[in-house]
Structure prediction request, 264 residues.
Amino acid sequence: MDIIVCVKQVPGTANVEVDPVTGVLKRDGHAGKLNPYDLFALEAAFRIRELSPEPEKVRIRTLSMGPGQAEASLLETVYMGADSAYLVSDRKFAGSDVQATSYTLSRAVMKTGPFDLIICGKQTTDGDTAQVGPELAEQLGIEHAANVTEAEPEEDGIRVTVNMDDVIMIQKMRYPCLITIDKDANTPRLPSYRRKLACGSGAVTVWTASDLDIDLKRCGLEGSPTRVEKIFPPESRCDREISEGSGDELAGELCSWLRERKFL
Prediction:
């Protein structure tokens, strides 16, 4: 069984600059971290492997698209238990919207070889569209299920529990298929120091546009049908008031403060 987990490196801080011309985040040079939702997706892959009749035959690969610095996050997935990792990195992909991103990832998925299951995090903390996973499935022409909270392998497919807000749905899909994992679906494991020593730093394969069978007109800003009209960081305020006193005094002061500002 072959599982591909799509991950993304997101900014590790809220203080990220925005390109005034393209309206996209300036990711180069900023500290990054693995998208939190992708940690749940990766843990889901590990648990599917552990539940399989022959776990030693389950191969888990991670895939990401981003700048060169995203290699550090992919290495973390290997230290957690992934067998290998792939980074798609090229300036030609910069500024991609959901459609261009899913198209580029689909070309990379095809290059990695045969697969049975693709697992994505429900969404990313920088884009929050929750659309890349489903669009990737559409690009590949495979079934998909979103908002998955549980996933169990079966003989010829996978059985998933899907949170539909007002109803919980049990769905079975045949391979190949794609699922997106909701938050708090599991408890992600920590990277292994022993695996870090064993794997070293050469566990990530980096591909550029020239390595993929890809139509560059469908990539990057040129291949993005949507445009960001305006994007800006939230205004930060450091105003604070410190009060001291007994519980009753502080409660009365807080109520007065809220009434003055018409919150009560």
Q: What stands out?
A: The mean pLDDT is 89.
